Amino acid sequence: MTPERVSFRGGNMKVAVIIATVGRPVEAGRWVQHCADQTLTPSELVYSIARASDLPDDFADPSARVITGRGGLTTQRNAGMAALTTNPDIIAFFDDDYVPSRYCLEGIVRAFTEQPDLVAVSGLLLADGINSAGISYADARKMVDDFDQRHRWQTPSFEPLAGAYGCNMAYRASALSGEQFDERLPLYGWQEDVDFSRRVARPEQIMTSNLFTGVHQGAKGGRTSGRKLGYSQVANIAYLMRKGSMPVGKGLLNLTRNMLANHLKALRPEPWVDRKGRVEGNWLAIADVLKRKDKPERILEM
After folding, report:
1. Is 1 within a domain?
2. How far is Cα 182 from Cα 175, in angstroms, rounded to an integer?
């Protein structure tokens, strides 16, 4: 891809896009068109996959690079960073089921230009289907298209974040200094986004901004099983609190909220959530924590 230089302050910055994907070939395949529609063309689009079936059959697009390696969100994102060749100023990570505004990448550059000390940024979401049955692509596309049709650049706003939101987060490449996502957080990598952003940036350098947006579909295909996710909801947080990348107070609050939600909703579970499995995983992890045998990697043995 040859970057398109749009006319605005900071418009010569290069943005690389990394999509780490497993089990969602349809959603992942759409990112070639998402990038082609941007007002600022990315310097490169890298797909980091675990197997050929993670992309559509016979996928071959010269505008994208595909690397194949071990599965797991943190491992795949690290492989994506290692594969970058354009020496970008900004590295953007998106979930495969995130549908961006066509002004998304330009807005990310504007955010880093407006805030010279900014290291990590997530955008505002038009909608997020993660806590529902999910948002269809048709509905997400309509929301984004409607937004783009009436788009105008707003007065920039920035609000502090406890940690970047992994479905749409971008980093100033010069601040990463060889840091990697923690591969001890396997599979879905619960809380890997918070851990990474808090390790590479001071709290005041992690923000959310109104300068870029999109819709997170919250697709349910390709997710970790309920039992494994329930274990991660406890074990990953315990690990990050010990590690120091998650404050103890925030970690305990996060853990308590998740466990309460799982137990209460298990009485009338949502069709798209395995609450019983999450509850079982929560208590397996609690038992391991009490015995000091908890480790995030245990879900690989389940």
Report:
1. no
2. 17
CATH code of the domain covering residue 75? 3.90.550.10
Q: 131 and 150: one domain?
A: yes
When pLDDT is cut at 50, 70 and 90, the band that residue 97 belongs to is very high
**Residue 3 pLDDT exceeds 70:** no
pLDDT tens digits, 248-268: 999 999 999 999 999 999 999
- Identify whether 295 is part of a domain: no
- For residue 60, what pLDDT band results from cuts at 50, 70 and 90? confident
Pull the structure tokens for residue 145.
């298209």
Cα 187 to Cα 52: distance, rounded to the nearest angstrom: 17
Out of 216, 250, 266, pick the residue that ends a domain. 216
Select from 241, 269, 265 the least CA-distant residue to 253: 241
CA distances from 201 to 195, 233, 283 (A): 10, 24, 33
**Do the beta carbons of residue 189 and residue 233 sit within 8 Å?**
no
Note whether 273 and 265 are within 8 A (CB).
yes
Picking from 27, 39, 38, 197, the residue whose alpha carbon sits closest to that of residue 47 is 27
pTM for this one?
0.93
